[in-house]
Amino acid sequence: MSGMKIMFLILAIGLIVPALWNSIPVIKETAHAILDPSIGALLLWNLNIGFIIVISALTFISTLLYKYTTDQKTLKEIKDEQKLLQTEMKKYRDHPEKFMEYQKKSMELTMKILPMAMRPTVYTIVPIILLFNWFTDFFASNPAKIFGFMHWLLAYIIISIIISSIFRKLLKVS
User: Fold this and answer.
1) Which of 3, 37, 116, 147 counts the highest number of beta carbons within 10 A?
2) Which residues, other chains included, contact 137 with Cβ-Cβ below 8 Å and sequence gap of 6+?
3) How confident is the model over 92-102, as pLDDT tens digits?
4) What is the pTM of this model?
5) How far is CA 127 from each of CA 11, 28, 96, 119, 163, rounded to the nearest angstrom?
6) In the chain, where the domains are located
């Protein structure tokens, strides 16, 4: 089975898990048995600090996986080439044929990056989806807002973007 087929299979499993969360009790019960005494206790201790700690840990693990499961040198080379193409595309905005030529090259580079960038997702999609389902259950029974006003999903997205950019800089991830 090719690498892309395996990735799509795992992504499909990641999408099926939420549908089975309430249908197959063992999935939900196992997740709660593991996460209630660990992450749940941390969130009950201090919702905001606990949430930031959990997101920081997840983001750190994801960043490390991305760094060590991708060819960083090749990714950097491709991204540098894309920057050059973007500069050229700006120069030729008024020349559709030349612009399209650079846009086609840019798309080809993007298609080279996609399989490389998807590899870390294979390792993280199922655990993160299980965690998101657990968060949904946790916040349904503990309806507090992050920082007193923010839904947990919005807070997760904002905090993970900020923390991810910090870790990417510190770990020199392309």
Assistant:
1) 116
2) 28, 32
3) 788 778 778 87
4) 0.80
5) 11, 12, 45, 15, 19
6) 3-71+119-170
| pLDDT tens string 136-152 | 999 999 989 999 999 99
Q: Which of 84, 79, 63 has its CA nearest to residue 168?
A: 63
Dihedral, CA of residue 137, residue 120, residue 117 and residue 51, to nearest 10: 40
Q: Determine the pLDDT at residue 1.
A: 52
DSSP string across 20-45: HTTTSHHHHHHHHHHHIIIIIHHHHH
Helices (H), the chain: 3-20, 25-35, 41-45, 47-69, 72-91, 96-141, 152-170
CA gap 133, 70 in Å, rounded: 28
